[in-house]
Write a structure and sequence with these properties.
Length: 430
């Protein structure tokens, strides 16, 4: 018998990509491939790319160059958002054998059967308008927390974003499909599931009577109904809601989390700017006043809840006054931490027509200012719970004899490694 072919994966970008990479890995393992670490020598390397920042594009090129030096005879497959947006650009990178767009990544096994090293780079992509199917994905055996994709694509047209061009129209699984996946994950001993999507609050949208996972969609569902259905299931101790737009985070969803034993008191709500003028230029679908209302309701019902915030600095036209407005708004807001993104120009976005352009060094200064604010916010939040006891789910990874876990409200805990604590929820005094 010939030895199994080995495959190695590297994921750039978001939790959604992480869940899809895990699913692609299982697909190939079912086809007889053996998964190995990306640092090792492999017969096939698969890079799942992101398109949100310039850095992700550069990182993809660097990874391909590294593979070329280490294993020039190996096959290199690029998929993900960057692959959908710029397939020809990727195909021109020396060493890339195949580029799989949004519609073709889940057909990777078939494409690999038809691929030979030395052939011209194969591009399997289509117009994003033609992408309509939903492929559920989840990560398993990768970490204690599992990322479960329940929604894909986006119908919004934010002026800085390429995601709709990379992932297509909003579409999602059926509630019964999500429930079936959750039961499977529970059967595999998963303790915490993070619900993910491109525009998660848009869950339930899809053409009437389309077929998802073998079942027809007879009516539109919504995210509240999904959360309510999952909350009634046994077997999974914890759910987290990944990033959800403030205009789609309804009072009903917040109240459900407040009254739930399984949904964790932890929200991640993109803001992007604390200036209404900039929010308008970004084509966001809310104003800062609505955002503040959402935060206030969460903190009224769950004073212990963690709230993460996405912010973009250096957007075209952002003046010092606009940035100060953002800083002051966030400083006053009862939030926990920030994910700060430095604006980078993306091809074919409306933001490229806006101005004046903010100098790059100013963008970096603003980023640093908000990251310092984030650090102080996180420290303040953590200190409020010093001496209290909270439930911590410990993860498998150990480093220098230590293990990590997170409380229900997302405070990171580091403790001496104990094998019996792995994938267990432990009462822990902070």
């Amino acid at each position: 018998m010939s030895a199994k072919k080995t495959v190695a994966f590297h994921t750039l970008g978001c939790k959604l990509n992480f869940s899809e990479t895990s699913t692609l890995s299982r697909m190939l393992e079912n086809e007889g491939f053996e998964k190995t670490a990306f640092e090792n020598h492999a017969d096939v390397y698969v890079i799942n790319t992101c398109s949100v920042t310039d850095n992700a594009d550069k990182e993809c090129r660097q990874l391909v160059r590294r593979i070329q030096r280490k294993a020039p005879e190996s096959l290199v497959v690029i998929t993900g958002c960057y692959a959908q947006l710029k397939p020809k650009e990727i195909a021109s990178i020396p060493g890339v054998d195949m580029v799989l767009g949004a519609a073709e990544k889940f057909n990777i096994a078939q494409h690999l059967k038809e691929l030979t090293k030395g052939d011209a780079t194969k591009i399997c992509s289509c117009d994003i308008e033609e992408v309509s199917g939903f492929n559920s994905s989840f990560s398993i055996h990768d970490r204690t927390r599992t990322f479960l994709k329940v929604q894909d694509g986006c119908d919004y047209n934010c002026s800085f974003c390429t995601i709709p061009m990379a992932r297509g129209k909003s579409r999602s699984d059926l509630i019964e499909g999500v429930v079936a996946n959750v039961k499977q994950l529970a059967g595999n001993g998963v303790k915490e599931i993070v619900l993910t999507g491109v525009n998660l609050g848009d869950f339930g949208k899809g053409p009437q009577n389309d077929v998802v996972a073998g079942s027809p969609r007879n009516r539109e569902e919504n995210f509240y109904e999904l959360a309510n259905a999952l909350d009634k299931l046994d077997g999974v101790e914890r759910y987290r809601i990944s990033s959800i737009e403030p205009n789609l985070l309804t009072n009903a969803i917040i109240e459900l989390v407040a009254n739930s034993n399984s949904f964790m008191p932890h929200f991640h709500i993109p803001l992007q700017s604390g200036s209404n003028r900039i929010l308008g230029l970004m084509r966001r679908r809310y104003r800062r006043e609505l955002y503040a209302e959402r935060v206030k309701l969460i903190k009224t019902l769950m004073p212990h809840a963690a709230i993460g915030v996405d912010v973009i600095v250096g957007f075209p036209g952002e003046t010092d006054e606009d940035f100060q407005e953002t800083f002051d708004f966030l400083h006053e807001l009862d939030i926990t931490y920030l994910h700060v993104f430095t604006y980078s120009e993306r091809d074919n976005t409306h933001a490229l027509t806006l101005g004046p352009v903010v100098p790059v060094h100013v963008r970096h200064e603003r980023n640093k200012t908000l990251r310092n604010l984030s650090y102080m916010k996180q420290q303040y939040f953590n200190q409020q719970f010093s001496g209290s006891t909270r439930k911590v789910l410990f993860e498998e990874n150990q480093k220098n004899g230590m293990m990590e876990g997170y409380t229900d409200n997302y405070i990171k805990v580091v403790a001496p490694y104990k094998a019996e604590w792995v994938n267990k929820v432990v009462e822990w005094k902070l």
